[in-house]
C-alpha cells in the first residue's frame, strides 16, 4: 500500500519542507513556523475569487504583528473582537476606518473607547448591546448578526452569536430610532464549513430581511458573509474557487447583478495553512500488553495551542520524518492515540481518530503538525504546568 505518510507533500512543497526541517534542526520544540508568503497568497486568491467583497481579516485567527502588517500592506481591513486587538492595530498605524468591531458581546466602556478612537462600524445581536452602542457611539453604522445553523462545520459557532430574524427586524427598526444607521446584516456559517449550501440559506435570509425592512423604510446596504471558508486538514474540502463561485451564484440569485456592499471576514482560510508546528516525541507507552494502540505523548497538546482538537473537531495532518521517504509504507506504520505533555487528563489530542505513524517512533523524534497557522498561538496557555506559550517564528519561503 502507498505510503500514507508520504502525503506530507500534498501539503508542503519539497522546498518548503526543507525550510521547515532547517528550523527544526536549529530551534527548541515546540514552535510554530509561519510562512508569510502563504498568507499573502491566500489573500490574493480570495480577492481574485471574490473581487466584489471587501476583506476584513478576522484578527483572532492569527494576531501576530507580522501577519497583520503583511495583510495591511495588501489592502485588507480588519475585524477586531476586543479593544486589545484594536489597540494592537492602532499601534501598527492602521486607521480606525479599516476596522469593524465584530464582537456582539461588548462592555459599554469598550464601545465608548472604540468610538473615541474612531471606530464607526459595530456588530450587534441584542437590544442590550444596541442600546449601549447608541449611548456611546451615536451615528455609527451597525450590522445585525443573524443566527446561523452551523451544520457541516468542523468548528461550529452556533447558538452563542446571532439572533433570529424577528429579533433582528426589531433591532434594525430600533437602531434608527436611537440615532444609529442600520447598515447591514452579518452571519457566520461556522468555521471550516464543508457545506457551501449553508451560505445559500443565510443569504436567502438576508434577502428576506432586506425586503421586510424596506417596507418599513429601512434600506440596508451591506451583507457581511462572515468566515467559514476552509483550509487543508486531514479531510479534503472543495477549493476556495469552488466556494466563491457558489457564494457568488447565491448572492446573484437573491440580489441580482446590483449586489449590496459585501464584506467577508476570513480567518482560518487566510492563515491556517501558513503554519507548521514542529514538535518532539516525549514518550511512547503501551497501557497494557493486549492494547492495540500505543500512546504517543508530544511536547505540545491542547494547552500549548492545539485547543481546536476539542472533540477532535479539527484534525491536523500529522507526519514524521519518514514522510519524506517514498519507500516508507503501511507495513512500517501503526496506529497511535496522541496526547499532550501536561498533567491534565483532558490533554488528549486524538483518541477516536487513530493516526498512522512509524511503528518504531521514539523519544526525541520530530513530529510535524501541519495547517496550524490559525487558532493556535493565540490559544496557547500562559505557563500552565510551567510550559511557556507557543513560540512563533515568522519567515518567508
Ligand atoms: C465574527 C467572526 N468573523 C470571522 C471569523 C473567522 O472565521 P473563520 O476562521 O472561519 O474564517 C470568526 C471566527 O470565530 C468570527 O467570530
TrEMBL record:
Single biological process term from Gene Ontology: putrescine biosynthetic process from arginine, via ornithine
This protein's pathway: Amine and polyamine biosynthesis; putrescine biosynthesis via L-ornithine pathway; putrescine from L-ornithine: step 1/1
InterPro entries reported for this sequence: Ala_racemase/Decarboxylase_C, De-COase2_N, De-COase2_pyr-phos_BS, Orn/DAP/Arg_de-COase, Orn_de-COase, PLP-binding_barrel
Cofactor dependency: pyridoxal 5'-phosphate
Catalytic machinery residues: 343 (proton donor)
GO cellular component: cytoplasm
Modified residues (N6-(pyridoxal phosphate)lysine): 60
Tagged with keyword Lyase: yes
Domain Orn/DAP/Arg decarboxylase 2 N-terminal: start-end pairs: 37-272
Pfam families (UniProt xref): Orn_Arg_deC_N (PF02784)
Enzyme Commission code(s) on record: 4.1.1.17
Keywords, comma-separated and alphabetical: Lyase, Pyridoxal phosphate
A molecular-function term among this protein's GO annotations: ornithine decarboxylase activity
Keyword Lyase tagged: yes
Family recorded in the similarity comment: Belongs to the Orn/Lys/Arg decarboxylase class-II family.
Protein name (database record): ornithine decarboxylase
